[in-house]
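ENCODED BACKBONE
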Amino acid sequence: MRQALGQGHMAVHYQPQVDMATGRIVGAEALARWTDPEFGVVSPGSFIPLAEESGFIVTLGAWVMEQAIKEAAHWMACGSPLVVSVNVSALEFQQVGFVERISSLLAKYGLPAQQLELELTESVLLHDAHEMEQVLATLTGMGLRLAIDDFGTGYSSLAYLKKLDIDRLKIDRTFVMGLPSD
């Protein structure tokens, strides 16, 4: 993975987010993709867990964040502003200077904070609650949007979520797969 990133075999792809009422694209989710010259496309289901386990997710996440902010700033400059969503792992979120790094990237590329949404996994909520709430408050105070991704896979309570300044809740597909029959 480290070599793949350094050799340009990693890329950021953007999954459009569509307003179902209008059919208009209103945002895009940044997704890391790896194409190996020898083995072809490497599934994110294979390399993301490995990146998390090895700690490389911090480096990979920082790279994806910068690429996404840079691209969103470009879209805005071209007259097509879209909110870009970036997944943030629990390990990445806990890094010293995380908020400052985001702020610095927004300033570097001239992207308004409102054009960036951070997708945090439910596991982020399970760490030091007081410290996490402070970081989330700082981020929303800057104008960033926040989403909880894969909700329903852990033990978070909806009552707890009421205390957080979250803009969007993405419920894990395994939680709703049987709807409406189950």
Remarks:
- The radius of gyration is 17 Å.
